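Lab meeting, item 3. Inverse folding demo.
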């Protein structure tokens, strides 16, 4: 059983930056593929980014590519999401998620993730 806890959300002006963190406990962190998702009011939860178990590969949603960077520190059991050039449409609750990968392919499908954090609010003002 893995417990996940996000932090680092807040209110920022458009064009600003935030760095989200997700700390994991209760499992072997390096065994898990880690993803970030977000959910805006009235919308479905959507994929943002995913990183492989050892951080060698990553994949991003088109909407954040070039602005967001996912990384991980397995020694600290933490995954990060650096968000730059933020836009009002990035406003959402951001969730981290973990899964034990069954193949080498990264996945953006939320139903494939087993463990979820409680989320952290990111609000970008125009």
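The presenter then showed the designed sequence:
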């Amino acid at each position: 059983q893995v417990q996940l806890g996000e932090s680092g959300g807040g209110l920022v002006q458009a064009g600003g930056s935030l760095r989200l963190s997700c700390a994991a406990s209760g499992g072997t962190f390096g065994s898990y593929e880690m993803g970030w998702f977000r959910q805006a009011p009235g919308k479905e939860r959507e994929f943002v980014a995913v990183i492989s178990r050892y951080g060698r590969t990553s994949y991003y949603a088109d909407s954040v590519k070039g602005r967001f960077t996912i990384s991980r520190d397995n020694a600290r059991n933490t995954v990060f999401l650096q968000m730059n050039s933020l836009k009002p449409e990035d406003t959402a609750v951001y969730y981290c998620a973990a899964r034990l990968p069954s193949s080498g392919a990264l996945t953006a499908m939320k139903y494939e993730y087993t463990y979820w954090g409680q989320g952290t609010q990111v609000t970008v003002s125009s």
